Amino acid sequence: xxxxxxxxxxxxxxxxxxxxxxxxxxxxxxxxxxxxxxxxxxxxxxxxxxxxxxxxxxxxxxxxxxxxxxxxxxxxxxxxxxxxxxxxxxxxxxxxxxxxxxxxxxxxxxxxxxxxxxxxxxxxxxxxxxxxxxxxxxxxxxxxxxxxxxxxxxxxxxxxxxxxxxxxxxxxxxxxxxxxxxxxxxxxxxxxxxxxxxxxxxxxxxxxxxxxxxxxxxxxxxxxxxxxxxxxxxxxxxxxxxxxxxxxxxxxxxxxxxxxxxxxxxxxxxxxxxxxxxxxxxxxxxxxxxxxxxxxxxx
Length: 299
Hints:
Distance between the termini: 46 Å
Main location: membrane
Family: Belongs to the binding-protein-dependent transport system permease family.
Protein name: Sugar ABC transporter permease
Keywords: Cell membrane, Membrane, Transmembrane, Transmembrane helix, Transport
Helix content: over 70%
Domain ABC transmembrane type-1: 73-287
Number of strands: 2
CATH superfamily: MetI-like
């Protein structure tokens, strides 16, 4: 009997030690998700709690006829596709350059990866100043190059405001792609390239037939991961434009925050959050699927 208790005690000890961690996860992750789903079917406006109560799918029905929501959805797609596309392309170029041997490569690597360490709010502040109509370096540079004539107000036009934010977030995100791709490039044996050179392959053929297939899994997983993160960005958009002008840079996460903070409509904000959770769940499943595919292919 005592031996059984000892065995049970030894087996249970690891789980007991993990209980605090499970409790933290439950409090800070699982509970908020369940609470979001609960509030999404409630009429819960904090300025009118007397009318709070269950309304079923009414919040979701209202979303279907909400022009601002659909505009935010369209902006979210443009924001995510443009950001991830530019970051992947430029990150690949940077990784290929940093994979070459040249003097001072270590310094260039350190400088190139610096933007990734900068917080979103600070990135927004830096680039807002750079795009400033009066003293911004971007407008001054475009004037000197003859691309624009006179001062340019980036944030008074929806298209230029969106691209200003995309440039800022791309600058911040390039290092992540570069780091991920560079680690994959360094795992490719130089013997493969030497054999290809002997067979008469040029630089483009080596890249297309050797490099790209070898880094494919890393590239796809990084794209999916950055898609999830970029779709969730709030700090840069909120700080640079607050979704304006006229909702032209408003994305769904920013709309959720504005609905919750400004209008105090927790139910409607939660309904949008549920939609975001489902969308992000799809991308997360794709990420896990590609990760498993890469492991199977490797083994």
